[in-house]
Write a structure and sequence with these properties.
The protein is mainly beta and 803 residues long. It is built from nine helices and 41 strands. Helix 6 crosses helix 7.
């Protein structure tokens, strides 16, 4: 049984909208246009008719012009989130005549409506609801009988069943799957629904006087396979993110093929060249052919029959409206394609996405002039185009890149789009893929340009959200982005760096070792200390109990030496097997590399995977009980996650404590573009607990020596404005150095076209004379040694606070 498209609410919630007094009459009883009959049981269990309908009548002596009018529907017991659904009207009602508005089609029934005079996609309740005939097409906002009575746009209104919004003493009663509510043939209107309408067998009549069986009906000529049915693409798409026809079968939907996908999720897009007037309803839709390669071509005029569904790429993503299990008839080929909608700064709104207190936004009516994501959703499946767009996310191994259609939105000096707060994700970012499987996808870096025109259907995926499936791809212009090289530290400067080397293990190709080694020796200019994240054990993802990383580190340090760097020594603590997260079997950990010709490491044995180090006060200041050591490794904060590595270094007679971190990842967080808004950042809870552990450790260090020089660094997997960083810096014990850079340079990572900060270096208050740099060598480039950019701080320890 097809259910009405509105949320169920409790009796107590419904009572919040109950009226306590009868409203005034709707202007005055209409002597002309009225709602003659309402039926919401079409296609339901036991129904004969296949569709819902609203029939209008004209009791006047002159034609009644419906241009600009609409029929609107509200659930019988509206909740605070309920909204009026709109079907726009054109044409007129002849004097004494009828006008038939077909609404949603169900899966049951055997008899089609006569040819409708207007078609909508509203799934009305069979038993309770409110229908209004409105002068205008803007959705009503009233939700009580009194408020609606005061809205002068309402020409006539019918509440049926138990509807809260109705005229007169009560709603019309008796509506069901097999019964409508209708006026007498005189179309008398006294503004009392209970008195004016009675239940009976549904009897739809169109403007030609046809009844079921006397006209073409819903099939649009079931005997003629070349004639379209009554459902159009905009009926399928509707005014929200979900199709009002989901789960229903549609027949002979007309459209022009605008794109064909022959790999992956195979299918094609169709678009209706004769759109409706509602900017919320997309005119394009994807036709999913499953494993079958589509046999249609761009420019074919087709009729498609199939079942409407909402495909969710992931559990928290938005959905893609599709026609599945299709039967397709090609009417002609070589047709002109519908004009593409331009994506640019003028068209895309500045607000990102609506919110629903963390709930799904799917049922909210789209506001394409207010929210960028609503604008893109209103174009789902339609041809879109942009010109001369700057690349803000480099090409990846899957044949995808990111551009911005808003060149002035949060730009970075190197060409990206900065993600500077949770509510600034970059509204102009669009992912680009190509439907051309015969041409190599361009290798684009951030700051390059897709010159000329890129055009194709707008799609949605869990990886990145809305994307243009390009049938025409702009020409790549290389703007010459260069990898940065930081300056060499001076003789009295201690250089400390952090670098996530992306699951490096001894089985990797030599090229990966050489690329990463060049980053250390050349681009970072051979720091004195390098904190490495994601060093795996000696056989990588092979899960055989191996936890040592000696072979991995030997190959890496040899490669650094070959690239012109120093002969580094290393320190680390092997994790327990399969206890620190990351790639199964990989046993990733943090490692200290250090140049023994410049800096010495203070070894105090005793620390291991489960034995944590602590701080003791001495006459010479603070020192670690174990070096290297871990911070409270048995704490729940580190469950299935990397434990911080702490080391004590001496440079020019000064002790410097270095804490290398790799906090838990963002896996499991809801996406920025998903259906739950604002998205839940569930992984943040554990990172906050981890940050609190490190913060407590640094406080113990400063309690032992207020002038202790500490450098806390690594991949924190969170932003400079996050709760993670706020927790880590609580009490002013650490300063995040990323905030010392100009705002448009605060990034170490690029994700979905957003330049953002995940990696950090923080210093204790005594570290006062320093020079900090993020060295951009990976994240902005199609050819990456790692997906993270390293960073470095150079500290003049002798000018910093002394013991």
């Amino acid at each position: 049984m097809r259910r009405a498209a509105y949320p169920l609410i409790s009796v107590s919630a419904a009572s919040a909208f109950a009226i306590t007094a009868l409203p005034a009459a709707y202007a005055a009883p209409s002597a002309t246009a009225v709602i003659a009959e309402v039926y919401g049981g079409g296609g339901n269990s036991g129904a004969t008719l296949t569709r819902d309908f609203v029939e209008l009548g004209n009791a006047g002596s002159a034609a009644y012009d419906l241009a600009g009018y609409s029929v609107q529907y509200l659930p019988g017991s509206p909740s605070s989130s309920s909204q009026w659904q709109v079907t726009q009207l054109t044409g007129s009602i002849a004097p004494g005549g009828r006008f038939l508005v077909a609404e949603a089609q169900g899966t049951g029934g055997t008899t089609a409506l006569p040819t409708a005079d207007a078609t909508g996609s509203i799934a009305m309740s069979a038993t309770t609801g409110t229908i209004a005939l409105v002068s205008g097409s803007t959705a009503l906002t009233c939700k009580t009988a009194a408020d609606c009575a005061a809205d002068g746009r309402i020409v006539d209104l019918v509440g049926y069943g138990t509807a809260v919004v109705r005229e007169g003493t009560g709603p019309a009663t008796g509506a069901s799957n097999t019964a409508s509510v209708a006026r007498a043939t005189t179309l008398a209107d006294t503004d009392d629904n209970a008195a004016d309408l009675a239940s009976g067998t549904p009897s739809p009549v169109n403007s030609a006087g046809q009844t079921p069986g006397s006209g073409d009906g819903d099939g649009g000529g079931d005997d003629d396979p070349t004639q379209p049915g009554t459902v159009r693409v905009h009926d399928i798409q509707g005014t929200t993110r979900l199709s009002p026809l989901a789960g229903q079968t549609v027949a002979k939907v007309p459209g022009i093929v605008t794109g064909v996908r022959t790999s992956g999720s195979k299918g094609f897009w169709i678009q209706d060249p004769t759109p409706d007037a509602d900017p919320r309803t997309s005119e394009g839709v994807f036709v999913y052919t499953g494993s079958a390669v589509p046999t249609v071509a761009v420019g074919d005029s087709v009729l498609v029959s199939g079942k409407i569904s909402e495909y969710y790429p992931s559990s928290t993503s938005q959905s893609v409206t599709e026609i599945g299990s299709p039967t397709t008839t090609v009417l002609s080929s070589g047709n002109a394609l519908p004009a593409a909608v331009t994506l640019d700064a003028a068209a895309v709104p500045d607000a990102y996405i609506p919110t629903a207190d963390g709930a799904s936004i799917e049922s909210l009516a789209l506001q394409p002039t207010v929210y960028a994501q609503d604008f893109y959703e209103s174009l789902e499946g339609m041809r879109t185009t942009f010109s001369d767009a700057r690349v803000v996310g480099a090409s990846d191994a899957y044949g995808e890149l990111w551009v911005t259609v808003k060149p002035g939105e949060n730009p970075t000096p190197r060409g990206g789009t900065l993600y500077s707060s949770y509510d600034q994700p970059g509204t102009g970012r669009i992912e680009v893929m190509s439907l051309d499987t015969t041409t190599a996808f361009p290798a684009a870096n951030v700051g390059d340009e897709l010159s000329g025109t890129t055009t194709g259907p707008l799609d949605y995926s869990t990886y990145g959200g809305y994307n243009v499936q390009a049938t025409q791809l702009g020409t790549l212009v290389d703007n010459g982005l260069k990898r940065e090289v930081t300056r060499r530290q001076k003789g009295d400067e201690l250089a400390v760096a952090t670098y996530n080397v992306e699951n490096l293990d001894a089985l990797d190709d030599q090229e990966k070792f050489d690329r990463l080694a060049e980053g250390v020796a050349v681009n970072l200019n051979s720091p004195d200390v390098v904190a490495l994240e994601e060093i795996q054990d000696d056989n990588g993802a092979t899960d055989d109990g191996t936890v040592t990383a000696e072979a991995t580190l030997k190959r890496f340090t040899d490669a650094i030496r070959a690239a012109g760097g120093p002969r580094y020594s290393w320190r680390y603590i092997s994790p327990e097997n399969d206890q620190d997260g990351g790639e199964p079997g990989g046993n990733i950990r943090q490692v200290f590399l250090f140049n023994p010709k410049r800096v010495s490491f203070t070894d105090r044995p005793g620390g291991d995977a489960t034995t944590g180090t602590s701080v003791v006060r001495t006459r010479k200041g603070a020192q670690l009980t174990y070096s290297p050591g871990r911070i409270d490794p048995t704490s729940d904060a580190w469950d299935s996650s990397r434990k911080p590595l702490v080391g004590e270094f001496v440079f020019h007679g000064e002790t410097v404590f270095v804490v290398a971190n790799h906090f838990t990842s963002k896996g499991g967080d809801q996406p920025l573009h998903g259906r739950y808004q604002p998205p839940a950042r569930s992984s943040e809870t554990q990172r906050a607990a981890q940050a609190a552990e490190v913060n407590t450790f640094v406080k113990s260090l400063l309690a032992a020596d207020k002038n202790a020089k500490a450098v806390v660094l690594g991949d924190l997997n969170d932003y400079e404005f996050s709760r993670t960083v706020t927790t880590l810096t609580d009490g002013g014990v650490l300063k995040p150095l990323i905030t010392t850079l100009p705002a448009d340079q605060r990034y170490t990572y690029v994700y979905d076209g957003n330049s953002q900060t995940l990696d950090h270096i923080l210093t204790s208050p005594a570290v006062t004379h320093l020079d900090y740099d993020v060295v951009h060598i990976n994240a902005e480039f199609a050819d990456q040694a790692s997906d993270h950019d390293p960073q470095i701080v150079r500290i003049d320890v002798n000018k910093c606070g002394r013991h």
